[in-house]
């Protein structure tokens, strides 16, 4: 066993930490209070700096213009970037584009790569991923009402989606739709690329989420697909393989999310320390002198370290044994880390008193926005049940109790 | 011991429940998504209905046009009203006006009553209460920087306040300011009535709280008092007695808040049941059939019942023995009930999955907005420490360990 | 609503508190470290004092020689007695005899009352209740393997029971056995009185529970019924009504248990205060000065008050509306109060450091022994599920979702 | 980063797992119910098998007859051994001997090594470590009343110790006593070897801990040192360096404890699975089919994995950077892992219902016995406070807030 981070990665992390501190944290109030479009010119300039530093797209392969980090190293990068809510965007590795890029690299035709992947990876356009439906439980992705029916050389798509994050301003969506209704449940749906200017692609609204309507990248769309017609050439990957590909996308995506959550925790803990050290609660007594806040800091530190090691271990296992072998790990880190983040943010808010619930700091935004972490990519409870079933099944097999 | 609610109160509660269901719940989406001013015409009409039903101002004395309920009965009314975020407003017993009315009744001069109390209790104007300061810990209210200096027949007020709730659109503020800087800490500040159109009363902004800027009654103001001059006749109660009066205001106010929180829990539990019974998670299986959600429902029910009885017991003790005897109870219900509400809302959000974090239901609004409950009126931790000190002091006294 | 305890009850409680302090707490070390038989002479003398004070058998009707308290008042007595683990025994209201007495009063024939009830209520003999079976889940009491077959004028009983508390030294057992195997599940079993000297009644062992083998009243027996033959006249209540009667026994029994648990919490909190006030952790600093222990004290106080009011409310509801109407309440108090006790005891142990895990105080005995509270009379989880089902069923009925 | 366990270690772990399953688990009921002396002949035979397998004393250096594993590898061994409460004893690496051996190796004179170390490491004798005092908080080890005064060539020791584990039957104690009362606090005490047959070494009792008096290795002694006289040659390490040496002993000792606790969790989880899979709760329904128990299994698995990685990471840091650099890590793993173990054992007990609280399984013994884990080696709360202080101090230093 060796817990050493390589020197190369260490160097990258130091550069990122400095960049986040100097270039991104000062933008936080603008991020919290101004519409996305107003931020874009500044963010574009920051992105240029990142490209100059040769840190653009740290996750993506070198041949596509990225840094090509492995999953463990990229996880560490995510953690460092997440101290700012703008970090991953400015470094060109934001969801949902990052996942879409991975799919396009693996399954895209040369034409699709040219038309969609290239500008996406360059940061010239944005995309979205359109899977979740309001009428169906996200916990059971094979339940899906949206259909894509072949007519002429086209697919005609009809359906209702929501939580299509970053649809506002995206150039195209990757849409999950049932193409093979008679196939076994897991082989019914396909992924289809739908440019957002296609007639019948209707962005109904940006869903208000915890008081935040949002705009641009920082939004969650509700989409009605109404006889939305695209060429069959827009099929992404084999027909009927939508779920298979979506699963592939989820594993590394959970590493990204979880390490991002740890990064958020790091920042929240820093802010808790700052508040504790600077808030005088009575003459000569700072918050930092009090045991209750000390206990919060220590418990946060322990849980954060525990979660972080668990996520890095999972990333390492995906790298070494593949995603399938790491399925159990992926479920475990998802619900454990989401829970840690919620507790750490809650303590940080409470430590700030009245200031903590205002939007004068980033904490309140995370407190409400990241509440979704326990819900998206499968609600925690679904992961717990599937973890337990696997453990029980394995025990039963090993002890002849099946 | 007798846990029976009187028949009269029972009748009132049934009327209110019906009114909330029929008249207020349908306004919820407007409340969540439209500015306060747009709501006001509708709310004014609803208020008229309440007056016709002779349920207006249930808390306030009959001679002032209210229903004159005792604290236990009024607590039950708060619980019933709180199933809608508009309940207390439409029934004329909303914070901060309710507390201001109590102070004006007890301490107002005949002129103050005529000018401020009468229209306030009638619902013709609104008011605010301006105590908390950004630079001082709310947990220690005797630390205060705002001053009111006598000049001629006036007070000249200078200071910085925030969390002056409902300042936007209020006709006057009751301001806490240091008038006697040389007096003992608890006798330094006074309450002064300041009409909001007084020069030097500057509403800097409605503070964005958990993503909600708000407007009108549903807002939290930040105020700069800059050489704000009012006649000394605007002094409310004896000079130097600001904290004494504020303390009197807090006890019953906590009953109102806590019973309101229980009402919120009741509604959240109803919504959780509705979601559980109507959400199919796989063919033939509803969420309601699953043990994890069943455990949430049962644990919520237990905690809510426990909190409710504790608050009612506290209200009864205030009624029978006075607020001072009930100080310990008041601290206990504050932190216990705030904690219960947070857990119940968290479970309700989670049970709704993606829908739970959207503003398509009222849950997300409560989840983020009521996070403040653990902070205002003294952060939970301060109450815990003072509860423990009293218990320890009493034990020491009884066992000669002082 | 009226939370006032009557003056009569208040007087009784003061007498009991004094008696517990003076007469019972000094016996605690003997209780913890010596076999039951060695304690009995002293306990018999204490019981005589209680009889002289006319406080013997506070729960049982006056015509049977008891005090005849109602359920709320008796609950308060249980709370007071439970500060000592010997309280209920010395006052003649200990489980399982108390429940057996209730059944015998309601269902006993004149002969059964003369032979079993009279000496039992007088404290001259002890009894036990033999229901739980090792091979069947206690959570589902209708699953039962023990049978009683009629032969001649006798029942011949065969079966395996455990957790037959206080069997060691008991004069008779009330045994649950299947008499009508073809009847519907809930009407299969009957209660039968079995003198413990009947051939075929075999006390296999006192089960070691959490390191405590125990003896006499303070023990849990495992019994093998091997062709154990008693006259049919020993049938208690109607044949096939075993579960019905057992259910009747459970409701008030839970009030007794829960109020006893609150009494244990009261004592644990006192001990925590004592330790905090007397333990110097560094020169001039006592444990009591530290926020972490202060938080434990305050949280314990809040949870204990919440649980206590909930139990008293439940007792009041049983008294006024009957046990059936209070089924939901009974389940709620069971799991809520058991949880509170576990947390309070855990904090009290921790506050005592090394001393807390030794048997030099009563805390460790409660910590391990009362762990069973979350298990007996239905594991907490079963109660949670049944509470939730009732809530969901009622919501569905009220909203047409059935 | 590399989470791979070496092949050599993997082989050792497999051998140990098999040995524990075949040779040690069958002894569990004897361990739980019979005195230590009766077990010893069997255990001696098992130890012989271990020596034959060349796995004896895995922690200790090869030149002293051990296997000489590093701290990470030895941690993994501890985990595997801890599935049986007899594991570490049978493999010759049990506390407190393991720690005493480390000290003797580092500080023992040739004579001390010959007389004490050699037979100790061979398993021919046992020892104990006598530091904790009943009248002083264990959280502040520099508070110590026991003294060792020089007279002639001897030390004369007077004092009162408890929690001197395994004193019963030990050949010698390493005693902490104040030798230099005028020195700075941390340099007052020394370690002195005291053969237990020295006059004045009085084992007052084996302290009953959570109902367990114990005997032999499995006991906790209370010792009175009454003018107990030993030669000054029995001084172990430099005079006044008792605390320094004790600190050195603690770091690796916490790794051993924590990995042992994880091993206990592993076994408890196995037992929970077994119970869930084999317990029918209604016809056709096993406990394993229920979500509540599934959630317990999943939450246990997550917490156990998190704790395990954190402990292994800490072990690795001690190996690579030394104990001083890893002080923060050592505190974090201590309270975090102790908490995980308590929760896992609690769930396992609950999952077993009535069986869980009996001593028919090992669970109840661990539930009560390992409650001490949150207390010994510094109560959790002291570790939390010191962790927080270090974090705050570092933040203050980095941000100029000191």
Automatic annotation (TrEMBL), chains A, B, C, D:
Keywords, alphabetical: FAD, Flavoprotein, Oxidoreductase
Pfam families: Acyl-CoA_dh_1 (PF00441), Acyl-CoA_dh_M (PF02770), Acyl-CoA_dh_N (PF02771)
InterPro entries: Acyl-CoA_dehydrogenase, Acyl-CoA_Oxase/DH_mid-dom, Acyl-CoA_Oxase/DH_mid-dom_sf, AcylCo_DH-like_C, AcylCo_DH/oxidase_C, AcylCoA_DH/ox_N, AcylCoA_DH/ox_N_sf, AcylCoA_DH/oxidase_NM_dom_sf
Acyl-CoA dehydrogenase/oxidase C-terminal domain sequence ranges: 240-392
Gene Ontology molecular functions: acyl-CoA dehydrogenase activity; flavin adenine dinucleotide binding
Domain Acyl-CoA oxidase/dehydrogenase middle: residue ranges: 128-216
Oxidoreductase in keyword set: yes
One Gene Ontology cellular component: cytoplasm
GO biological processes: fatty acid beta-oxidation using acyl-CoA dehydrogenase
Residue ranges of domain Acyl-CoA dehydrogenase/oxidase N-terminal in the record: 6-124
Keyword Metal-binding carried by entry: no
Cofactor: FAD
Family note: Belongs to the acyl-CoA dehydrogenase family.
Subunit structure: Homodimer.
Record protein name field: Acyl-CoA dehydrogenase
Organism: Desulfoferula mesophila
Taxonomy of the source species: Bacteria, Pseudomonadati, Thermodesulfobacteriota, Desulfarculia, Desulfarculales
């Amino acid at each position: 066993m060796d817990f050493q981070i390589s020197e190369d990665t260490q160097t990258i992390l130091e550069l990122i930490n400095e960049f986040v501190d100097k270039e991104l944290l000062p933008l936080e109030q603008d991020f919290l209070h101004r519409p996305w479009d107003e931020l874009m010119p500044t963010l574009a300039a920051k992105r240029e700096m990142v490209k100059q530093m040769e840190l653009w797209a740290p996750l993506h392969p070198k041949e596509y213009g990225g840094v090509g980090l492995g999953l463990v190293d990229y996880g560490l990068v995510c953690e460092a970037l997440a101290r700012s809510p703008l970090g991953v965007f400015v470094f060109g590795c934001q969801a949902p584009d990052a996942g879409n890029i991975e799919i396009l690299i693996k399954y895209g035709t040369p034409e699709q790569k040219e038309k969609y992947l290239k500008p996406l990876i360059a940061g010239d356009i944005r995309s979205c991923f359109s899977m979740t439906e309001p009428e169906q439980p996200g916990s059971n992705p094979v339940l899906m009402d949206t259909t894509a029916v072949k007519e002429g050389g086209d697919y005609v798509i009809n359906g209702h989606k929501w939580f299509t994050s970053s649809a506002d301003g995206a150039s195209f969506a990757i849409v999950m739709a049932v193409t093979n209704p008679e196939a076994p449940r897991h082989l019914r749906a396909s992924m289809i690329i739908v440019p957002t200017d296609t007639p019948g692609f209707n962005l109904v609204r940006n869903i208000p989420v915890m008081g935040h309507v949002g705009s641009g990248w920082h939004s969650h769309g509700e989409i009605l697909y109404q006889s939305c017609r695209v060429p069959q050439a827009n099929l992404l990957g084999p027909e009927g393989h939508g779920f298979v590909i979506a699963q592939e996308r989820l594993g590394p995506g959970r590493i990204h999310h979880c390490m991002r959550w740890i990064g958020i925790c790091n920042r929240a803990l820093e802010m808790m320390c700052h508040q504790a050290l600077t808030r005088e609660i009575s003459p000569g007594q700072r918050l930092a002198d009090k045991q209750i806040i000390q206990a919060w800091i220590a418990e946060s530190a322990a849980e954060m370290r525990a979660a972080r090691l668990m996520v890095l271990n999972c990333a390492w296992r995906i790298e070494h044994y593949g995603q399938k072998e790491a399925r159990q790990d992926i479920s475990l880190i998802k619900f454990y880390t989401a829970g840690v983040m919620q507790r750490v943010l809650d303590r940080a808010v409470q430590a700030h008193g009245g200031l903590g619930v205002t939007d004068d700091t980033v904490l309140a935004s995370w407190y409400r926005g990241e509440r979704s972490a326990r819900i998206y990519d499968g609600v925690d409870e679904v992961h717990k049940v599937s973890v337990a079933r696997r453990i029980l099944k394995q025990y039963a097999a090993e002890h002849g109790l099946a």
